[in-house]
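User: Design a sequence. Structure:
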């Protein structure tokens, strides 16, 4: 089979104006960025149309080195629904340069199930990540400048909470010291960087519905504390307008297309292991206004991305998903079942059976939200008919719907079984969404409910830093905020080497971070880093420009 790059290059691509016209988007809302991508300048939503649209979440089992193919499945489902005659819009997150040049390469799907132009989407795209990075670091510079000129004064800033960000995996920036070599360079401070998808401004952008909501959230960002012990926000600094100006265009959702000319809105990119892991509310609501069916995804597995999609995004935006697609692969299940990596492509019903415990756990998680679940096997060429039939029968015994996705090889045609299963479920969609916790619960109770109900842990252990921050949260009157768990994606525990399927573990919360502008409290679990590092052999080693074409980002 041809490479992702070859397939993307050989596929005809329509002008973005044609894609917009086909989805019914008025020409005056389209802001083209070249011929094949555009922004959508939408400021008002038709809530009746949004309520009538069927929102489908795509999530997955616990990720492994083999990958799961959640984006490939999402794109394939959209193309399959289009082929089945439905008016559908895809809504995805933007890829980050960190993983693109780090471990995984691009994040635009694969095979015959891709969004295009693939190189643009994976690299600079429309500049949204750069705008967020610039806005964050401008805000940091303004904070340090205010601190410099007001040092020692009661209204001066004693403690700075905001960290700079960069959309690069760079472990040496996790902990740094600034303003060395003389008093004219500022006040020496211990600080650090987070990756741009983990920055509060990324979450602020993704959870803002319109320009005024964006401005209000920027106003509310807690930058630090004064010498008098008072909270110091962007509003106190007086620069909300400047930061809003930097993000004005980035707030507009981006429109591209799949290989089969299905409209795809790709916007926002918070990671699900260190942030809330969903694309923007603006993107999802725009998609729902123009699509009878909307396919979206949340990062990593159901215990991370899906949990935050329901408890944070849906609660904030008032969204109600019609159903959830749960993606699995045979090799990921076999790895979960204890088989070695070099044997995962070989038939092994015993390892597959053991690995199904992981799938069963994720089905149970989704059912706590009252979601109707479709288990989708993202098919690989080495999957046997016996293994597929075994999984189909197992799902039937567990009262879970099942379908095979062969979109990687066959595009929308290979996704028709999955698409038809989705249509059937959407005819009798999930009931009202049930949240894991109430906003009236205190922060510790919210965390405890997540770790016991979702992860299956015995309990949570709050370290001293976390306990001290809870006191600040109470003092600030922010106990009503939801919680965003920052936890390893490779386990239900906070230790990536232990599966946690037996439930014999506790979750250690090292610290809490107040993201007042974003509107949630981040609980940092175990040794979770908000600035990733590069692997021994980064994907950057394989990216190049050949004959004027970028290769290696697929």
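Assistant: Done.
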């Amino acid at each position: 089979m041809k490479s992702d790059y070859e397939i993307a290059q050989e596929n005809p691509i329509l002008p973005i104006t044609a894609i917009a016209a086909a989805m019914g988007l008025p020409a005056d809302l389209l802001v083209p960025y070249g011929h094949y991508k555009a922004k959508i300048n939408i400021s008002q939503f038709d809530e009746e149309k949004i309520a009538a649209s069927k929102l489908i979440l795509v999530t997955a089992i616990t990720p492994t080195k083999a990958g799961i193919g959640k984006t490939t499945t999402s794109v394939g489902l959209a193309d399959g629904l289009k082929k089945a005659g439905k008016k559908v819009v895809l809504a995805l997150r933007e890829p980050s340069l960190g993983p693109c040049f780090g471990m995984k390469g691009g994040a635009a799907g694969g095979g015959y199930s891709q969004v295009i132009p693939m190189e643009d989407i994976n690299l600079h795209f429309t500049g949204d990540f750069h705008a967020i990075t610039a806005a964050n670091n401008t805000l940091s510079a303004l904070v340090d400048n205010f601190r410099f000129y007001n040092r020692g004064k009661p209204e001066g800033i004693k403690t700075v909470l905001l960290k700079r960000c960069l959309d690069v995996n760079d472990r040496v920036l996790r902990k740094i010291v600034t303003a060395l070599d003389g008093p004219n360079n500022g006040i020496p401070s211990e600080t650090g960087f987070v990756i741009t998808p983990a920055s509060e401004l990324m979450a602020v952008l993704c959870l803002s519905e319109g320009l005024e909501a964006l401005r209000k959230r920027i106003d509310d960002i807690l930058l630090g504390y004064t010498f008098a012990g008072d909270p110091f926000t962007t509003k106190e600094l007086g620069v909300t307008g400047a930061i809003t100006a930097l993000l004005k265009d980035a707030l507009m959702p981006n429109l591209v297309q799949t290989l089969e000319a299905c409209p795809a809105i790709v916007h926002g990119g918070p990671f699900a292991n260190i942030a809330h892991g969903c694309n923007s509310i603006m993107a999802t609501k725009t998609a729902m206004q123009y699509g009878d069916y909307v396919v979206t995804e949340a990062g990593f597995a159901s215990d991370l991305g899906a949990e935050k999609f329901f408890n944070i995004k849906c609660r904030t935006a008032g969204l109600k998903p019609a159903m959830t697609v749960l993606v699995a692969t045979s090799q990921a299940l076999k790895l979960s079942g204890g088989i070695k990596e070099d044997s995962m492509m070989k038939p092994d019903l015993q390892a597959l059976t053991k690995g199904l415990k992981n799938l069963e756990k994720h089905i149970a998680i989704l059912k706590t939200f009252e979601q109707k679940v479709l288990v989708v096997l993202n098919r690989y060429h080495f999957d046997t008919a016996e293994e597929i039939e075994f999984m189909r029968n197992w799902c039937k015994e567990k009262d879970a719907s099942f379908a095979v996705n062969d979109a990687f090889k066959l595009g929308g045609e290979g996704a028709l079984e999955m698409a038809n299963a989705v249509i059937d479920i959407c005819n009798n969609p999930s009931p009202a969404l049930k949240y894991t916790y109430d906003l009236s619960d205190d922060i510790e109770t919210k965390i405890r409910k997540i770790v016991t109900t979702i992860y299956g842990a015995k309990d949570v252990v709050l370290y001293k830093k976390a306990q001290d921050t809870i006191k600040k949260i109470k003092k600030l009157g922010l106990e009503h905020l939801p919680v965003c768990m920052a936890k390893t994606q490779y386990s239900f525990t906070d230790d990536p080497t232990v599966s946690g399927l037996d439930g014999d573990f506790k979750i250690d919360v090292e610290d809490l971070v107040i993201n007042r502008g974003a509107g949630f409290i981040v609980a940092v679990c175990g040794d979770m880093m908000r600035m990733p590092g590069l692997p021994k052999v980064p994907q950057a080693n394989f990216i190049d420009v050949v004959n004027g074409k970028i290769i290696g980002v697929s």
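The domain at 128-246 is CATH 3.30.1510.10 (Domain 2, N(10)-formyltetrahydrofolate synthetase). The longest strand covers residues 506-515.
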